[in-house]
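Hi support team,

I've been running sequence recovery on a batch of backbones for a student project. Most finish fine, but this one hangs at about 90% for roughly twenty minutes before it completes. I'm not sure whether the input is malformed or the queue is just slow. I've pasted the structure tokens below so you can try to reproduce it. Let me know if you need the job ID as well.

Thanks,
M.K.
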């Protein structure tokens, strides 16, 4: 019987157009491929494949050398061993397995040493977990707990004692969390009750801040201030917000009370100061109204506005009709005074002109002022419309509020100008009828 022709290779051979890898170590000969073109090409192909797997082992070795947790590569190395045993190539597999054997011995020795070190570390972490104080602040407790957990996770296996230590660690963490949860549940309830007490005081203070029963309210405010001090602590941010509201209510009242006391010192014999000041302001208002064209009236109106601001912030139960009339007459005085100043700059001898001419000049200039105000209002309304189309922001909202206030003031003054203009036109018509 004729033997099949065989082409030999240092690590394999070709027989019947089949490529074989010679047996090595405990592995028998095995077919790794077939000849597709030429035998030389087939041998070269499988030699090249060997270089590929050789490089993979070199890469694995480099990874292990550079890694911090080298022990984590043991399973990858074992997978590489199985992969290598089934890999189709021609080359010195014995040498590659020798490299893997050396790496495995190195890793297992390293893991053994690490487990001794890990045991020491994890025993210390268990003791640290046992000593965690559940009464520390929430932030400090959370940070400390997270730190211990992170160190536990980063520490490798402690070998045979891993399960025992892990159970103890988890139990101590659970005890810490349960006690802390109970503590903070009670603390949360305390904070909730304290916050409620603070808000009740704020509610009372805000309702009392505009009281005109000053002497009685002073005593109540002092009682609330003492009660505030006795309530107890709440979280800082909440405490600041609550205090600001309470403080503002106190400031509103005591600023009013300060004004009230100054009135009492100024008018010691007056029993009802609010009533007395109301009559006084009405009389002063009528005086400037009767002499609106004079410079003195305009200056006095400014002084009365300062007095009104103090009066209005001191006493809250003010007749709305009187408040409107006060503002309206002051506006009239300012507008008439301004009209006269504008005219006299243009006509220095205005007072010597005939009555009809005076009225015609006043009507003409007041019409110009009305027209100017209308133009300004239209322009500001366009600005407001543009602002309202923009994306909402703190800056934009502030600009919108400012512009709306300007428009409302301009409209109020415009109505006063139109009222004065109508009166001037009526006076001119009546004069012409004479």
């Amino acid at each position: 019987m004729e033997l099949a022709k065989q082409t030999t290779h240092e690590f394999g051979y070709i027989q019947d157009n089949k490529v074989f890898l010679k047996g090595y170590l405990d592995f028998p000969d095995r077919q790794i491929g077939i000849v597709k073109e030429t035998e030389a090409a087939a041998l070269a192909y499988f030699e090249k494949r060997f270089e590929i797997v050789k490089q993979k082992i070199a890469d694995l070795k480099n990874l292990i050398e550079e890694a911090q947790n080298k022990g984590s590569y043991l399973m990858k190395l074992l997978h590489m061993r199985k992969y290598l045993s089934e890999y189709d190539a021609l080359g010195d597999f014995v040498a590659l397995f020798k490299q893997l054997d050396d790496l495995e011995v190195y890793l297992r020795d390293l893991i053994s040493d690490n487990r001794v070190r890990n045991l020491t570390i994890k025993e210390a972490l268990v003791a640290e977990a046992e000593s965690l104080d559940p009464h520390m602040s929430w932030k400090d407790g959370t940070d400390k707990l997270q730190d211990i957990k992170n160190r536990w996770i980063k520490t490798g296996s402690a070998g045979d004692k891993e399960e025992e230590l892990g159970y103890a660690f988890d139990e101590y963490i659970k005890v810490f969390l349960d006690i802390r949860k109970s503590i903070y549940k009670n603390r949360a309830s305390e904070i909730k009750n304290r916050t409620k007490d603070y808000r009740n005081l704020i509610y009372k203070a805000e309702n009392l801040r505009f009281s005109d029963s000053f002497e009685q309210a002073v005593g109540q405010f002092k009682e609330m201030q003492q009660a505030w001090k006795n309530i107890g602590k709440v979280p800082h941010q909440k405490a600041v917000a609550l205090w600001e509201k309470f403080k503002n209510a106190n400031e509103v009242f005591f600023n009013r009370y300060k004004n009230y006391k100054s009135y009492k010192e100024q008018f010691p014999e007056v029993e009802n100061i609010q009533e007395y000041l109301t009559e006084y302001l009405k009389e002063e208002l009528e005086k400037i109204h009767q002499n609106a064209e004079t410079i003195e009236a305009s200056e006095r109106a400014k002084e009365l506005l300062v007095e009104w601001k103090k009066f209005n912030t001191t006493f809250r139960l003010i007749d709305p009709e009187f408040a409107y009339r006060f503002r309206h007459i002051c506006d009239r005085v300012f507008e008439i005074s301004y009209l006269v100043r504008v005219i006299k700059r243009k006509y220095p001898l205005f007072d010597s002109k005939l009555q009809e001419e005076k009225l015609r000049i006043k009507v003409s200039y007041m019409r110009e002022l009305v027209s100017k105000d209308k133009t300004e209002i239209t322009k500001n309304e366009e600005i407001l419309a543009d602002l309202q189309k923009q994306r909402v922001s703190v800056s934009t909202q502030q600009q919108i509020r400012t512009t709306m206030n300007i428009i409302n003031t301009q409209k109020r003054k415009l109505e006063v100008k139109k009222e004065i203009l109508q009166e001037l036109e009526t006076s001119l018509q009546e004069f012409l009828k004479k």
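--
Follow-up from support: It reproduced on our side and the slowdown came from queue contention, not your input. The CA atoms of residues 339 and 345 lie 10 Å apart. No action needed from you.
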